[in-house]
Amino acid sequence: MALINCRECGSQISDSATACPRCGVAAPGGSCALVLTRPSLVGGAVRTEVHVDGRPYGNLSARGRVVVPVTPGSHHVEVRTRESPVLRQ
Ligand SMILES: [Zn+2]
């Protein structure tokens, strides 16, 4: 955890705060988004799951994109792969 300044009142607050404890403004550090994209046809049969700070944010399919709103600061992004099941007839 790091301390940042509230964009509204300037108070020092945690970078993980979703609202300023002094003035109440939402997203006191401002807002950002991680945009993750996957090129087409690269490992298209492999399913990928996006996790940010340990929380799942969906699957990233070929030519797909996942947008994750985050607070400013450092975040841990992990893309886990899992082979798709082989379809049998
Ligand atoms: Zn504030």
TrEMBL record:
This is Zinc-ribbon domain-containing protein. It comes from the Bacteria.
